[in-house]
Amino acid sequence: MYATLPRRTAVVLTVACLLLACLAAVAPKRAAAALDPFTGYLMAHFTGESANGEQIYLAHSDDGLHWTDLNNGQLVLRSTIGTRGVRDPSIVRSPSGDRYWIVATDLRIASGTSWNDAANRGSTSLVVWESRDLVNWSAPWLINVAGAIPGAGNAWAPEAIYNAATGDYVLYWATNSARNGVTKHRIWYVRTSDFRSFTTPQLYIERGGTQGLIDTQIIEVPNSVGGHRYYRASADGHITIEAADSILGTWTTLGNLSHMGISNGTGGGTVVEGPMWARFNERDEWALWLDQFATGRGYMPITSTDLGSTRNFRTRSDYAMGGNRKRHGSILNLTAAEESRVLGRWGSSVPVSRIQSYNFQDRHIRHADFDVRIDANVSPAQDAQFRLVPGLAGGSGTVSFASVNYPGYYLRHYGFDLTLAADDGTGTFASDATFRPVAGLADASWTSYQSVNYPDRYLRHYDYLLRLDPITDAQGRADATWRRVSG
């Protein structure tokens, strides 16, 4: 372009462009757009080492202390890659609120992996999902963040936080590897703008001697209440609290929770892990949730109005965690629009039902050791309780029978025998677990359940055991007729 201009004009334009480029290079990143006021809270978590426990579950709270399981307590996202299980999910919002990510540990102890193998020969990748609205999520993908760390045995407990100083995200996690002759867990980090490409991993936090650490989580504090902009909690034998004014700057140790009788094992007392921060909406008060893994009691909160000293924390008893056990996760404060979308998608509650036999009306469908039969006086009662949710295979008016006490498990036929099984995410499972309610074969005021993938067969009992059979006589019609009653 400059070839058509006088030489002096071209030189002036060249200098001007260089000056603008320099100014752009040193100008601070544009501040994030202000979000609408927060009205609720969303927790992403896993539930434990059961067959479906190492997947993504969600819970909602109005006040930050009392939680309700979403999606009727069933899992929301399933990992179909890597180890096919996820733990320690971190939910991340972009500064402008137009994009979200869930980043999680690629680990499934339920598959039979030992903790030793998982720590020393486990996945060095993390699992990521992306969404534009918190309800429609992409397929998961893997990012091998720890692959470049010499001798890396794993990549556990990821977290991410937007760094306004650099305009991207600091993604950090724990890796077990040898360094200076000592093998232990340390916290490493990369920078990323899209959770697909990332920088070379750098060491972030290391404790002295042989002391390892995992489960670090950082929270940004508006107006630097307590004297610092950022606070982090880490499980390193204690629950150590540190503070800083920049994410990648120098951190100052404020103390731990030993004075409250809380530790990560070194100090005894109440032994916890998985520290999870949350700020209460519209006030300067923070909760630090701690997973009481040693006793299996799940999360407990301690709260503070000034994070500048660990002495400001107090224990709380005015909280409730909902039905599912909640293991190491993260909490996102929700705007009204976000809350409306989340509750519209997963908040409606399907009632608990029992399924009564037509010809043995004192008996109901129940699971026992994952087999399915009809029994009277079922104990525990939840073995005979199901939620009739929209059919997993789709189709207008179809249903699937979701177990109440085994989240993620459904009644499905296998070899025409009925069993209670964990949804494995396949199309075959979805079809085997989906039925079409039709007028009762023995009494039109009752209901029969027709298989969607074998429409000539119906759900029936035979010798009190549940089967999928063609129905050809009066006995079969009676055996295949049911009534849904309240749980």
From TrEMBL:
Alpha-L-arabinofuranosidase B arabinose-binding domain location: 354-483
Pathway in which this enzyme or protein is active: Glycan metabolism; L-arabinan degradation
Swiss-Prot/TrEMBL keywords: Glycosidase, Hydrolase, Signal
Signal peptide: 1-33
Keyword Nucleotide-binding: no
Family affiliation: Belongs to the glycosyl hydrolase 43 family.
Name by which UniProt lists this protein: Glycoside hydrolase family 43 protein
Native source organism of the sequence: Nonomuraea salmonea
